[in-house]
């Protein structure tokens, strides 16, 4: 989206109005969907910024007090991005406690299947189903203080105590483990070992990986912040353009 800064004989009033309208539109989209187009860089790349914040909301609506990322917003946006010639790459910002497994995996699979260059950046934390989301991109970053919580599948509500229930849990967990192993440098066996760790969490089983540890384990590619993530994405876009 270009801005006209030419002198129209009105003292720059029109250009000022255009800038104000653009900033207002950006603010409204950020507030509503946590998404914005980054197109003011020197390389003239158009980068779609996708934020996955709070709880991943699935088929059930979370309470009004809970900050959520709604999969019914994310999936159509990703489809539109893939179909658009105007978008060069995608930057995914993550600060999530996890949430609905089906919704989280759906978003992760969608991101992983995109042909556009993609980079993720874990800020604060990317816990539970946020782990597959963090590794679904072509390259991943985590800030030094960022955390990733790996734990077994849980379920809320009434659970029937029969073998079929536990088999179902295992199948869900295998899907998550398989996806993570396929899109990162960590093995499925090591993921399961981290999930079943008993010495780290006081009231649960699982592992908390902070910054460097997430990189050492092979979940995340590199330590870095927003400048490193954008720089990497710009270089990936340049290479993809050269390829074609």
Task: Map the helices and strands.
Layout: H1 13-33, E1 35-38, E2 47-57, E3 68-70, H2 71-83, E4 89-99, H3 101-112, E5 118-126, H4 130-135, E6 139-142, E7 147-150, H5 163-182, H6 188-195, E8 207-210, H7 212-217, E9 222-223, H8 226-243
Parallel strand pairs: 2-3, 2-4, 4-5, 5-6, 6-9
Antiparallel strand pairs: 1-2, 7-8
Helix pairs in contact: 2-3
Roughly how many Å is the radius of gyration? 20 Å
What kind of assembly state do the chains in view correspond to? Answer: single chain
| Overall pLDDT score | 82
What is the CATH C-level name? Alpha Beta
The overall number of domains is 1
Q: pLDDT below 50 for ≥5 consecutive residues: which ranges? A: 1-9
**Could you tell me how far the N terminus lies from the C terminus, measured between alpha carbons in angstroms?**
24 Å
Question: How are helices and strands ordered from N to C?
Answer: HEEEHEHEHEEHHEHEH
Q: Structural class from helices and strands?
A: alpha/beta
CATH topology: 2-enoyl-CoA Hydratase, Chain A, domain 1
- Measured as a percent range, the helix fraction is 40-55%
The largest β sheet comes out as: 7 strands, mixed
CATH architecture call: Alpha-Beta Complex
Task: Report the sheet-strand fraction.
Answer: 15-25%
Shape by Cα distribution: globular
Q: Count of helices?
A: 8
Write the CATH homologous superfamily: 2-enoyl-CoA Hydratase, Chain A, domain 1
Number of strands: 9
Can you give a write-up of this model?
Residues 1-9 have low confidence and may be disordered. Helix 3 (101-112) links the parallel strand 4 and strand 5 (118-126). 32% of the residues are buried. The protein is 43% helix and 21% strand. The protein has eight helices and nine strands. The strands form two sheets. Strands 1, 2, 3, 4, 5, 6 and 9 form a seven-stranded mixed β-sheet that branches. Strands 7-8 form a two-stranded antiparallel sheet. It has 244 residues and is an alpha/beta fold. The chain is globular and about 60 Å long. It has a single domain, classed as 2-enoyl-CoA Hydratase, Chain A, domain 1. Helix 2 packs parallel to helix 3.
């Amino acid at each position: 989206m270009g801005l006209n800064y030419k002198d129209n004989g009105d003292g720059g009033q029109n250009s000022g109005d255009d800038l104000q309208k653009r900033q207002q539109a950006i603010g409204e989209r950020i507030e509503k969907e946590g998404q914005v187009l980054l197109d003011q860089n020197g390389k003239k790349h158009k980068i779609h910024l996708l934020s996955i914040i709070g709880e991943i909301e699935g088929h059930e609506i979370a309470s009004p007090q809970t900050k959520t990322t709604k999969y019914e917003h994310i999936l159509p946006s990703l489809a539109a991005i893939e179909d658009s010639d105007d978008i060069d790459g995608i930057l995914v910002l993550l600060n999530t406690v996890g949430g609905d497994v089906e919704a989280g995996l759906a978003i992760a699979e969608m991101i992983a299947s995109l042909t556009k260059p993609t980079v993720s950046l874990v800020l604060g934390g990317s816990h539970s189903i946020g782990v597959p989301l963090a590794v679904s991109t072509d390259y991943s970053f985590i800030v030094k203080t960022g955390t990733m919580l790996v734990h077994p599948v849980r379920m809320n509500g009434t659970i029937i105590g029969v073998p079929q229930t536990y088999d179902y849990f295992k199948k869900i967990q295998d899907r998550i483990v398989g996806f993570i192993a396929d899109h990162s440098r960590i093995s499925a066996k090591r993921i399961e070992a981290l999930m079943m760790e008993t010495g780290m969490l006081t009231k649960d089983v699982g592992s908390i990986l902070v910054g460097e540890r997430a990189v050492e384990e092979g979940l995340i590619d590199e330590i870095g912040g927003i400048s490193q993530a954008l720089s990497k994405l710009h270089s990936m876009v340049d290479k993809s353009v050269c390829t074609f």
